[in-house]
Amino acid sequence: MVKLRMEAIILSGGFGTRLRPLTYTRAKSLLPIMNKPMISYLIEMLPDTVDTVILAANYKKHQLEEYFERSNTDKTIIVNDEPKPLGTGGAVKFAEKYLTDEFFVLNSDIICSLNLSDMIAFHRKHNAVATISLWPVENVSEFGVAEIQENGNITKFVEKPKQEDAPSNLINAGAYFLESSILDYIETGRLISMEKEIFPQIITDTERFYGYQFKGYWMDIGRIRSYLDIHQYLLTKQNENNHLGKNLLNNGTLNKTVVGNDVIIGKNSKIEKSIILDNAIIEDNTFISHSVIGENSTVCSKSQLSGVVVGDNEQIGTNTIEENKLFWTQEIPKEFPKKQIGNVIGG
Ligand code: GTP
Hints:
It is built from 6 helices and 29 strands. By secondary structure, it is α/β, with parallel strands linked by helices.
């Protein structure tokens, strides 16, 4: 019998170190993409059979609670507050009490065209214990690459292989459909990587670990580069030159740019291929390209910024000329790690 209730765990507890300084002030999964929090794309992607979403949260979890108190969704949202970062595996184990049978696990930082209902059908057809989504990449040497049989059975992962040694060009795309029996593989209360510790063990023990390939698009929004790229991709896909929020006061010129709500852009200013977040002020005679300007930040007049990321609530002085730089002058949150803790997908 097909079960009508199902849960999805969305892994939203990472610090997002590669997206700093934007993640100094916000949970990575609330970072806006085309003026909509990243996590809302994941929620919209879930099939109707998923009625409960468990947000595996840690860093900035209150922001997630506040966001879902305000937003409308027909699904039950549970913010599962991890006492400390438990890693992708530990976070799944920590959600065990909410799981009834099979369930999804989704990284919160992927934007893709994966059809999760088709993935369930594939999983059931193969009588799998675990099915993971797979995406083809050109440069395999930065990723864990799947060795896969013709029927979709994954026999191992090879970490960061040389191009010529790679068993395929397929990488873990960050969405899993799992039977509850896999929870027995995960120890309680310890930092555990699903990808590095649990999946290899399941592959060794069973022949029921499958990879589901899909077509369309996939992007891991883990880095500033991909954060900018997804906007260019979606602008083109939606056939828009710019994507503008509410109450924009614009006296400048915009090209391939996404602007949040309540933004002011001064006279003779030119902005291209950039993201301007809510309440930002761009003064007169300013040129900005391939950059992200944080919420409530001001770029003073006659500045020229290229490849720059300005954190929230910052002020960039008049006549500033900078390239490829992160701007952050405020205190860094105490709990924020000095370097990346782990990287499940690569890149
Ligand atoms: P970086 O620091 O830039 O690598 O970002 P990250 O901390 O988000 O790590 P990564 O991109 O590798 O994480 C992939 C997914 O797992 C993201 O959706 C993270 O939010 C999530 N994640 C990573 N570590 C944890 C954790 O310890 N607990 C929980 N609940 N989620 C996590």
